[in-house]
Amino acid sequence: MQVPNPSYRYYQKFKGVWKSDDGACTAEFTEHGKIMAEYGGARLESYYDVSGIDPLDSMNPQPVPGLMEMAGFGEVRHPGECMRFHISNRTFYDGDKTLYSLTAWYTFDAVLKFELMDLNDGGRNEITMKKEETVSVPDTMIGSVDADGSYHCGCGYVGPASKFCPECGKMI
C-alpha cells in the first residue's frame, strides 16, 4: 500500500516553533508543509518538503554532479546532514526588498540548521535552530473542567467553561 503523502511524517516531526539560541531567528513549521520564518526584520513565508539523504552521501560534503556534469548545477551536502529541506521560495523579504536566501537541513545530531546568504554581499550565516518546547494538556484532561472552572478543549482552548467552546464551537 502506498502512503498518500510520504512527507507527512516529516511535517509532524518539524511542526512547531523553532528558535536560534540568541532569538534572532524564529521559524514556524506547520503540519501542512508551510514555513514562516523571521530574521533581522525580514520575513519568509513559503512551502517546504523534506527528503531523507543516504548516510554515506552526507559523510562527504561535496557538490553532487548536476545537469550533464556542468559546473554550477550541483548541490552541496553539509556535514552530518540527514534530511534536506526543499523550500519553494527561499527568499526573506523586508517589504519589497529581498535580503536573504535560505538553505535548511537536519543533522544526525537532531539539530536543525539554517544557512542564510545575504543577497547584497554574498556573506553566509549558519544558524542552529532548536525546537521550542510546548506545554501539552494530558489526554485525560481534554473535554474536562478543572476544580477551578477551567475547561480544556481538544482544539487547545483552556479557559472558563460555558455552553460552547469559544474557539471551535464544540458543545461542552
Strand and helix layout:
Layout: H1 8-14, E1 16-20, E2 25-29, E3 34-39, E4 42-52, H2 55-58, E5 81-87, E6 91-94, E7 97-107, E8 112-118, E9 124-131, E10 144-145, E11 150-152, E12 158-160
Antiparallel strand pairs: 1-2, 1-9, 2-3, 3-4, 4-5, 5-7, 6-7, 7-8, 8-9, 10-11, 11-12
Structure description:
The chain has an eight-stranded antiparallel barrel with strand order 1-2-3-4-5-7-8-9. A three-stranded antiparallel β-sheet has the order 10-11-12, with no helix packed on it. A hairpin with a 4-residue loop joins strand 2 (25-29) and strand 3. The radius of gyration is 20 Å and the shape is elongated. The chain is mainly beta and 172 residues long. It has two helices and twelve strands, in the order αββββαββββββββ.
Number of strands: 12
**Structural class by SSE content:** mainly beta
Tally of alpha and pi helices: 2
CA radius of gyration:
20 Å
The run of helices and strands is HEEEEHEEEEEEEE
With strands numbered from the N-terminus, the spatial order across the biggest sheet is 1-2-3-4-5-7-8-9
Tell me, briefly, the overall form: elongated
Structural domains: how many:
2
Indicate the multimeric state. Answer: single chain
Give the N-terminus to C-terminus distance in angstroms. 39 Å
Largest sheet: 8 strands, antiparallel, barrel
Task: Give the structure's gist in a few sentences.
This protein is mainly β and 172 residues long.
What are the salient characteristics of this protein?
2 domains; 172 residues; single chain; 42% strand; eight-stranded antiparallel β-barrel; 12 strands; elongated; 2 helices; mainly beta
